[in-house]
Every structure is written in structure tokens, then in C-alpha cells.
Design goal:
about 200 residues; three-stranded antiparallel sheet; globular
């Protein structure tokens, strides 16, 4: 997700898709999770840079029976919830005229400073409850990539974690945080942006 988040919920579970669809088109991302509308600001440059580099890696790894969608794209979840993942991999049977539906093969979120609770806790729980078998987080503040898989008990467990990870399922890819965040230095070498470095 993006760099700032604000959750608006007068009463847990009280808001609906009609409330979500009534939100103004103000350039922010709006999602409905657990009856709360979650609003996020426009992505920071590093978020956009990482997203632009991740997309072709994912797309190259899927077969013709799947497609990788990138935000902005709506995904409907059970219980009248609607989210907008950074990336979502689905079979063509999940592609509707207006938005995506289950089943979903993989969701990927790019975690930014203001979205840590939403991505690490709120959406993790929502995706697990929806039965999404794989959830990957590219965590820019922590400078770590986490690959999660859904267990038979309906909770995510960590398959791999680190600044560089290699997945074999559901996609066979390697993600390297240094490569995803690199930019030319004044001397011509590649180095990660300040926000993407460890403190």
C-alpha cells in the first residue's frame, strides 16, 4: 500500500459498499475492510518505482491462464469487502467487467511507512479469511520481503523472508530489494533511495 492511511469507521462493521462507492474521486485509494473505509494517499515515488519493477517480474512468471493486475484495481472479498491490492494474480475466471473476484492465486502489497498496520495486520487477516493462498509483502520501511502461505488452519505462515527471496510457488520468481529500489548515484553506480535503506 501507499504512504499514508486513515481509517474512518463510526461503528465497526457499519459501512457498506454503497458508502464506499459514494466516496469522492479525490485521487486517494479507498477500500472497505471489516466495515471500515480505509483511505490512502497517492503513492510516494519509491513505491511507484518498486511497483514498476515488480510488475514485469510477476507477469513473466504466470501462465496464459492467469493475469497480473496492478493498482488501481478493485478486488471483492466475502462479507461485502472491497480492497485494492498493489498486485493481484488471478485466473481469467475471476476477471469481471468492473472488478475482480475470488479465487485469487496471489496478492502482493508494497508496504510504506503509513500503511504498515493495514498491510501487515488488517489486510493480512482479510486475505487469510478470504482463503487467498499466498500473500507477499515488500516492506520498504523494514527493508524485507516476506512470502506467506496459507495453512490448512486458515492462517499465514512464513515461507521465506529477507532482502532477497526466491519463491517456487505460486510463482517461480526471485525478488531482490536492492534491485527493486536501485537508482543511479551521482557517480553512476546504482544505490537504493534513502527511504528504502536501513537506518
Amino acid at each position: 500500500m501507499v504512504s499514508m492511511s486513515l481509517v474512518t469507521t463510526p461503528t465497526p462493521g457499519s459501512l457498506s459498499l454503497a458508502d464506499l462507492e459514494a466516496m469522492p474521486d479525490d485521487g486517494r485509494r479507498h477500500e472497505l475492510i471489516g466495515g471500515a473505509i480505509v483511505m490512502t494517499a497517492a503513492p510516494a515515488p519509491i513505491h511507484q518505482m518498486v511497483a514498476a519493477r515488480v510488475h514485469p517480474i510477476l507477469q513473466a512468471a504466470v501462465g496464459e491462464d492467469h493475469f497480473v493486475f496492478a493498482a488501481p484495481i478493485d478486488l471483492d472479498l466475502p462479507g461485502g469487502q472491497r480492497v485494492e491490492p498493489d498486485f493481484v494474480v488471478v485466473p481469467w475466471t475471476s476477471v469481471g467487467e468492473q472488478r475482480l473476484t475470488l479465487p485469487v492465486t496471489l496478492v502482493v502489497e508494497i508496504v510504506s511507512p503509513g500503511s504498515q498496520t493495514n498491510d501487515r495486520i488488517t489486510k493480512r487477516a482479510a486475505y487469510a479469511a478470504a482463503g487467498i493462498p499466498a500473500y507477499w509483502l515488500i516492506d520498504l520501511p523494514a527493508r524485507v520481503i516476506t512470502l506467506l502461505t496459507l495453512t490448512a488452519t486458515g492462517v499465514y505462515q512464513t515461507l521465506a523472508e529477507g532482502p532477497t527471496v526466491t519463491a517456487t510457488t505460486p510463482l517461480a520468481v526471485t525478488l531482490d530489494l536492492d534491485q527493486l529500489t536501485r537508482r543511479p548515484s551521482p557517480g553512476g553506480s546504482q544505490q537504493p533511495p534513502e527511504e528504502g535503506r536501513r537506518s
